[in-house]
Amino acid sequence: HDHLITSKQLSRADIETVLDRAAEIADDPDAVANRHANAVLGLLFFEPSTRTKMSFETAMKRLGGSVVDMGSVESSSVKKGETLADTVRVIEGYADSLVLRHPKQGAAAMACEFVDVPLLNAGDGAGHHPTQTMLDLYTIRENAGLDDLTIGIMGDLKYGRTVHSLSYALTNFDTHQHFISPESLQLPREVVYDLHQQDDTQIREHEALESVLPSLDVLYVTRIQRERFPDENEYQKVAGEYQIDLETLEDASDDLTIMHPLPRVDEIAPEIDETEHAAYFEQAHNGVPVRMALLDLLLSGGETDE
Ligand code: CP
């Protein structure tokens, strides 16, 4: 079976297959309402989640299936010291596919070695979050198009798994990627190295948004993730930087699309929510058709005929 662990494994054709299927499902969700009746999805979330967990649950139910949920670390036998390997081996016996979020980078890559059912990485520490990337790409395609795209990615680029996954996936398209962050939260050097190897990708790193803002089609804002900092003092040095409000956007294109994986803390002022720029709630809602498409393709072995 296929697992989805990082966006590095995805080709342009893979991405387009998922996005096209998601668009079909969004247009006519009733057509798939019973497509996976009796299918069970196992949810294993070792870290908090609102969107990823609930949109996977909604997606499975809208395909006619159901979910089993390990619950929190505190309420499961993880609390008694059960290993991740044992936990996934047990739950694969209860479910047709597994979704795993874990605080350790590499957790999904390790866990999928122990299971035969498809395992989807729903975030592994500061590593990857490839299903988020799929809904991000879907949202970009709808709002700005994926080719000849100039995107600014701003905030916590060091620990930001949504950023790592998105930047790799975008190398399948013809993109200019501008990375905007404090020096201490720059993209990991190995990611920069990998992106530089891609023919159709141009990347630049900046400490200020100002100079690049007018050229952007999309601005992807991220939260500074307090929980990932080994030292609270280091977090305090950068907390509250890179906030945007209406004044910040004065020089932006009228067509600028603003995205954020959410949750936000204070990076985007609420006054932006009602503008034509704001796409972050639409982005979160796109998680349902996109995850329906992913589950449908994985559970059907890629066979999309009704
Ligand atoms: N974007 C995202 O992964 O949100 P959650 O942490 O709420 O799942």
From TrEMBL:
GO biological process, one term: 'de novo' pyrimidine nucleobase biosynthetic process
SUPFAM superfamilies according to UniProt: Aspartate/ornithine carbamoyltransferase
PROSITE patterns according to UniProt: CARBAMOYLTRANSFERASE (PS00097)
The protein's role, per its UniProt record: Catalyzes the condensation of carbamoyl phosphate and aspartate to form carbamoyl aspartate and inorganic phosphate, the committed step in the de novo pyrimidine nucleotide biosynthesis pathway.
HAMAP family on file: Asp_carb_tr
The gene coding this protein: pyrB
Residues noted as binding carbamoyl phosphate in the record, renumbered to the chain: 51-52, 101, 129, 132, 262-263
List of residues binding L-aspartate: 80, 161, 223
Gene3D superfamilies: Aspartate/ornithine carbamoyltransferase
Signal peptide: none
Annotated transmembrane regions: none
Keyword Transferase recorded: yes
Keywords, in A-Z order: Pyrimidine biosynthesis, Transferase
Annotated InterPro entries: Asp/Orn_carbamoyltranf_P-bd, Asp/Orn_carbamoylTrfase, Asp/Orn_carbamoylTrfase_sf, Asp_carbamoyltransf, Asp_carbamoyltransf_Asp/Orn-bd
Protein origin, superkingdom: Archaea
Sequence ranges assigned to domain Aspartate/ornithine carbamoyltransferase Asp/Orn-binding in this UniProt record: 148-297
Pathway membership, UniProt: Pyrimidine metabolism; UMP biosynthesis via de novo pathway; (S)-dihydroorotate from bicarbonate: step 2/3
Subunit structure and binding partners: Heterooligomer of catalytic and regulatory chains.
EC number: 2.1.3.2
The Aspartate/ornithine carbamoyltransferase carbamoyl-P binding domain, residue ranges: 3-142
GO MF terms, alphabetically ordered: amino acid binding; aspartate carbamoyltransferase activity
Descriptive protein name: Aspartate carbamoyltransferase
Record flagged with keyword Transferase: yes
Family: Belongs to the aspartate/ornithine carbamoyltransferase superfamily. ATCase family.
Catalytic activities: carbamoyl phosphate + L-aspartate = N-carbamoyl-L-aspartate + phosphate + H(+)
